[in-house]
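Practice problem: predict the structure.
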Amino acid sequence: MKTGIQKEVIAPFLIRSQQLTNEVSPTVREIRDNVAKASKLWPQRIWRTAIWSGIILTLTLSVIATLVIDLALKKQNERKLAEQIARTTRVMNYNQDAFRQLAIAQVPIKVVRTSITKAESLETC
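Answer:
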């Protein structure tokens, strides 16, 4: 009876186990090899990704900062230009009034080109 059970139950089980071992062993070896390769490649890929992400983030922030600074400088220049235009308008109006008064008084006027420094033009305002 013991021999019959061995032939009918245990022997097919052992044969099938040996077949599975022969089929599965190469796959397990291949998985181990792939895990070893992946463990070497992933740190490199992670660092490469981190470095590229850092570079892209830095460039993006630099572009945004440059655009913000450019916008701020443009606004400041526009303000200064508006102030200069207003100041020049006031000087021209003042000169126009002075010429009108001189014309009414019939005073002869001789117009001569002069150079006015910024400090002098501020004083006339």
